[in-house]
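re: that chain from earlier
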Amino acid sequence: MAKIRWTAESEKWMREIYDYIAQDNERAAQRVIAGVYNRVQILKDFPEIGYKYRSELEGEIRILLYGHYRIAYLIRSKELIDILGVFHGAMEMERYLKILA
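^ sequence. v structure.
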């Protein structure tokens, strides 16, 4: 079973998603954040479930989908996965992943 680490950048994205949704509906914001978190838990047992985005020296970056969101993660080893960011489907995720990896 792999350990999942949320990077500071991914935690920042989650706060921004929450804040944006909570402007209109705090309960909906809570549901989205809980849904993303719960979706990520599948990576503990199935780290390669997301589609391959690209390979880096540090490991393989993959994307896991949840509703309108793309969860970018780095498989560092069989024991360690880093969540790089959570992006709305309308965003240019590629621009941000260049900076993160």
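The mean pLDDT is 91.
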